[in-house]
Amino acid sequence: MFQLFKNRNFSDYISDTFSFFKETGKHFFTHYFIINGGFLLILSVLFYVVFKVYFEVLFSNIGSVNQDFGSMESYFNNNIGLIIGVVVVLILLILFVSLLNFAYPIIYLNLYDQNKGNSFTTSTILKEMKNNLGRLLGYFIKLFLISIPIFLVLGGIMVLLMFIIIGIPLLFIIMPAYLAWMNLSLYTYMNSKTGFLEALGKGFQLMKEKFWPIVGSNLVMVVIVQIVLTILTMIPYVIGMASIFTSDQMINNSDSEETFSFLGIVMAIIFVFSILVNYVLNNIILINNGVIYYSLRENEENNQQKSAIDSIGSNHD
User: Is the model's pLDDT at 314 over the cut of 50?
Assistant: First the structure.
């Protein structure tokens, strides 16, 4: 069984994250796709249709002799109602899927702690997600409102600092720190049933306890996720581009409209695939912050020591 409550340092945060997936990854992702798979599939179809239409309209104008970009504007003007409707549905679905994806690892680890392992079912996870979805929605609405001034202030400071070079290395500190703060606050909010501002304060306090190991761990995980995402998305991109440039139409320089149409399909598939992979890989970052969260709780609560004492008492009985 993976040990959640444990004193850890920088290297432990990273190694234990991968140890978690090694020990219980099959159970974790099985239930993840059972719960989120359908919504991810619907989201993929919508993204594919939107990107395919957009690229087809774009490339049809690029591939034409006169390059009449006015027809693109005419297309969007004539279908403005449909476009707005699809965009609204897409945004709402993105928000809902994002809520599920943020909630799932947090609820999973909480159930893992309560059950002393992964002996729980999909229905148990769904029940917990249903009970917490309202609070989670309220959290992100409040977070969005409070993040606007924070981003404006931090963004302005970073832009000014980048002119004097120092802002670039600071970016690699501030962004992982902000990510850790938000994730630790969310874990606190979901597990402790505290208020929004209280959770933000507690999350910031937790982050400060081991600032550099936590920030470093988040930075490493973000880099790993981006490298994996880049590699996975480059594979279909290279295959797609190779198939285009080795096709008979491209070699003979004929039927450019069909070539650009195929290019639109390839680009749409790559976009959709990268979005899906990003959702799945985001679990690594969230679980990493969960490992950090339970480690910091262990420093305060000594759950491991209490569990050892309780087990000694039960053995004597």
Answer: no
C-alpha separations of 62 from 55, 58, 101, 240, 313 in Å: 10, 6, 38, 19, 76
Task: Spell out the alpha helix ranges (H) of the chain.
Answer: 10-63, 70-78, 80-114, 122-162, 167-192, 196-209, 211-245, 248-251, 256-301, 303-316
Burial (CB count within 10 angstroms: exposed 0-12, middle 13-18, buried 19+), residue 212: exposed
How many CA within 13 A on the CB side of residue 302?
A: 5
Q: What is the pTM of this model?
A: 0.84
Q: What is the DSSP string of 265-309?
A: HHHHHHHHHHHHHHHHHHHHHHHHHHHHHHHHHHHHH-HHHHHHH
Average pLDDT, the chain: 82
| Contact yes or no for 264/55 (Cβ under 8 A) | yes
Q: Is the four-CA dihedral 86, 91, 96, 97 of positive or negative sign?
A: positive
Amino acid occupying residue 171: L
Which one-letter DSSP state was computed for residue 68? -
For residue 50, which amino acid is it? Answer: V
Q: CB count, 10 Å around CB of 160?
A: 10
pLDDT in tens, 114-159: 999 998 999 999 999 999 888 888 888 888 888 777 777 777 776 7
Residue 235 three-state SS: helix
Q: Which of 184, 20, 182, 35 is nearest to 109 (CA)?
A: 20
Question: 8 CB contacts (<8 Å, ≥6 apart)?
Answer: 16, 291, 292, 295
Closest CA to 238 of 266, 262, 210: 266
Query: What is residue 194's DSSP assignment?
Result: -
